[in-house]
Amino acid sequence: MSWKPIGHVSEIATGDMKRFTVDGEDITVYHLEDGWYATSDTCTHQDCSLSEGDVEGHEIVCWCHGGAFDIKTGSATRMPCTRPVETFPVRIQDDEIELEIE
Fold first, then answer.
1. Distance CA 83, CA 34 (A)
2. Which cofactor does it need (predicted)?
3. What are the CA-CA distances from residue 95 to residues 13, 57, 91 (Å)?
4. Predicted confidence (pLDDT) per residue in 27-42, tens digit
5. Is the pTM of this model over 0.85?
6. CA 93: distance to chain centroid?
7. CATH of the structural domain 2-101, one choice from 2.102.10.10, 3.30.70.920, 1.10.60.10, 3.40.50.2000
8. pLDDT one-digit tens code per residue, 16-25
C-alpha cells in the first residue's frame, strides 16, 4: 500500500464530493464536516457513478435508484443496494489530498 496525491483540499468544499481517477479506478472523495473519506465511485447495484448522487449526512445516495451507502464504512444502508462499496483511507498533507491505494 502506498499514499498517492490526487488533488488539492481547495477542490472540494465542506459537504461536497469529487470523482478522481486513480490508477484507472474511479474514486469519489468526500469532504464532510468531520473529515475526509473516499469510496469507489461505482454503485454495486447498477454500476452507476456515485459522484452524481447526493450526500445526505454520512450517506451517498445513488441517483440511479435511490439506494445508499455509508460514506465512512462503505456498507449498503438503503435498498436496493445490498453489497458494500470499497473504501480508501484519506489523509491531508499540507494542501494535498492523498489516498492509500494498493
1. 25
2. [2Fe-2S] cluster
3. 13, 25, 10
4. 999 999 999 999 999 9
5. yes
6. 19
7. 2.102.10.10
8. 999 999 989 9
